[in-house]
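Input.
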Amino acid sequence: MSSSNLDTVFLAQRMPLLRTLARMVKNPSIAEELVQETYLRVAKTIQQREVEHLEPFLFQTGRNLALDHLRHLRMQARTLMEDVSSEELQAVPSGAPSAEESLHAEQLLERLGSTIECLTPRQQQIFILSRLHGCGYAEIADQLGVSPSTVQKELKLIMAICINVLDRLEQPT
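Output.
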């Protein structure tokens, strides 16, 4: 398999691979680094031996790198925890939100949910595909049969509506 075949497959699968790895490591920056490392590892492998099914091999390599990263983080956290006494751990303030912060977040989610329900079905689809599934303008446009600029304009409008709701919630009553 040539590097041009790898380039073609990699470019076609880069975004799905990035989304997969971002879900695994829950950090877009780390996911981007893992995508780059995946390309380098696969390129090195295909120089040494033939890979019959490049796309699954690309994803498996990426997932393996993500799992290695997560294992490293767990090991690092375990090591750090062993170095800290229980008294020091008890003195660390909780990162949990206060009851007031939780109520505010709940109100915000309720208002945003109500706002999203008021959007047109197409706007709802655009919001869900963009913000929840991480799809890009072109991908959403293909799925909905509209132009990428239409998706961009709709998303800009949706985000302005959401920001307006947030601003109203932040104002003292």
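The mean pLDDT is 85.
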